[in-house]
Amino acid sequence: MKKILALAMAAAMSLSLAACGGGNGAASSKPAASNPPAASSTPSGSTGGGTQGSGFTTVEPGKLHMSTNAEFPPYEMLDDSGNPIGIDVEVAAAIAEKLGLELVVDNMGFDAALLAVQNGQSDIAMAGITVTEDRLAKMDFTDSYATGVQVVIVKEGSDVTMDNLGDYMIGTQLGTTGYIYASDTPENGGYGEDHVIGFETGAVAVQALVSGQVDAVIIDNLPAQEYVKANAANNLTLLEGTWVEEDYAIALQKGNVSLMEAVNGALNELKADGTFQNIVDKYITAG
Length: 287
Ligand code: GLN
Fold this sequence. Notes:
alpha/beta; globular; 10 helices; 2 domains; seven-stranded mixed sheet; D-Maltodextrin-Binding Protein, domain 2; three-stranded parallel sheet; binds glutamine
């Protein structure tokens, strides 16, 4: 339905140009940048781990703090012992290793995970985070590492279609692009706030579909598939087609150019040497 992929890519590209350029480029990447982030949370930091004085600092010396919302399988979820696992967690661990740091996962709500990185309380945020124009105004993003496709979950036999969604009640996860776009005005391609309920997690939104509180759930494709599988007894299904296509990337505090270069460099190395794909395959082919 919507397609913001091009926008996201253009934004990510201008961002990396700005990051390389140093000097007087892109007004947007300067302002918050040069000011020290949220005073209290920035102890003098560490100089990247083992490797040659790479110049970046982290919230806690020797550690790479990742804020996330471990409610988004297979990107991030908790295992049976309550430990965070998933594609984002393993990619972050591999990035940390490349930088000579130890990964620390800070699990919190989705909105809180985005705020933590903006405020300098975490070094990176990874939570299947879509790059959007609004978010680019508040944080910086690495190159994209995945295409996110949002889909619509309904009950089997439901009358809801991609085209009449606006006549129904839609469940989403609060703070996500599903919520932001769906609750926008019809002129902007949304359905209006009256048609959308934002739930704390995607799982709770799906429970609201099962109980009849909403008629459809808009959510990213991979979690959607997991939720449909987990609710096999409740006859849920995905509408054919995609609702929106987006780019996922790693968020960093605005203006943290040296850490951005280090993280983006590590991410691209992991893509190039096949490590990234191995992690994705492990989670996506596992089911
Ligand atoms: N990709 C969506 C967003 O960034 C949802 C992410 C999530 O629920 N973890 O808003």
